[in-house]
Amino acid sequence: MKRILLTSTALVAFAGAAAADVSFSGSAEFSYNDATGFADDVSITASGSADLDNGMTASASLTIEDLDTVEAGDITLSSDNASITYHVGGDGTGAAYIGDELAKQGTLTNIFEDSDSIVEDAGISASASLGGATISMSINAADKYQIGVSTDLGGTDLSLGFVEATGDFGASLAGASSGVDYTLAFGSNDTYGLSASTSAGGADVSLDFGDAGWEIGASMPMGPATAGITFDDTSAWEVSLDTSLEGVDLGFTFDDASAWTMSAGVTAGDVTVDFETDSASVWSLDATYDMGNGVTAGIGTDSASEQYVEVDYDLGGGANLSLDYATSKEINPAEDIAAGTTVSVSFSF
């Protein structure tokens, strides 16, 4: 609570100093479900910035969910080559994040992951550009730090990262040479990986190699269709075929375990129909119809005998009125709705 009050005070003071640069945005939804009753979901974000007399820029943002919970926010002081940010609620990404995982190689310690998985609740982060390199540091609520360094070595991006909490470190080189895009990465615990892709003879070819094994893949256009194949060190493979013919989109995959999937999509005027099935006899059928004047209707069913029906009315200006019926939660691929009958109104600003 103390943190929220301090942050709110800082935001209010900041808004007073630069009211012309303060903006608000958000969304709201009100709904009624015949099984769960009334519900609401409100999110409001306030943000603003001001150019200071010393050449620096001060900025702040705050997102409030359901009008009583601070979900996220930042307070930043920055110049042309440096910045420091206080992350409200400790929602900052750790400075050691230097790239997504390299396909088959997995996480390569805790450095080459999806950024969401190494947030570590960074409370304060800072960065500065020195001699062509950017040096970053973050500290979380437990006073554990992360360090990241990145620079451009004549067209090759070099990134380094270290996580104090686990002792993990990593480095990556990414660039292009002779038509080949590549990322070469090393990490603690003897982890390493190479990801490369290029085009040759009309085909797109990729290679993923490292301590966790290897995988190769290729895809090639064949008239109106695109054929693809992947193969790895465990002798696992998959072939795929995708095509589009006169408004009909078709997709098919088959692998070494004799498992297959098939999808088909058809658009005829204002009606769209999508069908998916697989070797386990699991299937789904969905259809939508644009009725005009902002009204769209949808219907669907699947192999588990689940069904849904929906009608959406676009009220304009980002507002929408919906009437939905579903036998189970999330059966509708276009909307996250509860089981039962739901009436909802939503808008954004």
Give an account of the 3D structure.
- With 349 residues, the protein is mainly beta.
- Among the domains are: 1-86, no CATH class; 236-349, Porin.
- It has one helix and 24 strands.
- It has a 24-stranded antiparallel beta barrel.
- A hairpin with a 2-residue loop joins β12 and β13 (203-210).
- The protein is globular and about 60 Å long.
- Residues 1-20 and 114-119 have low confidence and may be disordered.
CA radius of gyration is 26 Å
Shape: globular
Assign the CATH architecture of the domain at 236-349.
Answer: Beta Barrel
Would you identify the regions where 5 or more consecutive residues have pLDDT less than 50? 1-20, 114-119
CATH topology title of the domain at 236-349: Porin
Distance between the termini: 28 Å
Write a brief structural summary:
With about 350 residues, the chain is mainly beta. It has one helix at about 1-15, and strands spanning about 20-35, 35-50, 55-65, 70-80, 80-85, 120-130, 135-140, 145-150, 155-165, 170-175, 180-185, 190-200, 205-210, 215-220, 225-230, 235-245, 250-255, 260-270, 270-280, 285-290, 295-300, 305-315, 320-325, 340-349.
